[in-house]
Amino acid sequence: MASGEFTIEDLRRILHEAAGESDGADVDVGTMDTEFIDLGYESLALLETGGRIEREFGITLDDSTLFESPTPRALIEAVNARLTVREPS
């Protein structure tokens, strides 16, 4: 299980694993405020991404968190907020 901070590199890697290397635009500092839909990531890719984040980082993300985080920046902030309140193992 990963620990610490969820970063843009983590998000990029997990998105590529969930949606495939060739699907969607690359997420980087220049696209932090671009909506996932505009980057080419559909709801199924985001659900798979959320599941992978949960497993890797040991947190729970409900569907509303995923869909109320329309940009990479918003999702990274939501995940990091969950990481800071996560119960110790």
Automatic annotation (TrEMBL):
Keywords: Phosphopantetheine, Phosphoprotein. Residues 5-83 form the Carrier domain. It comes from the Bacteria. The keyword Phosphoprotein applies. Gene3D superfamilies: ACP-like. SUPFAM superfamilies: ACP-like. InterPro entries: ACP-like_sf (IPR036736), PKS_PP-bd (IPR020806), PP-bd_ACP (IPR009081), Ppantetheine_attach_site (IPR006162). This is Acyl carrier protein.
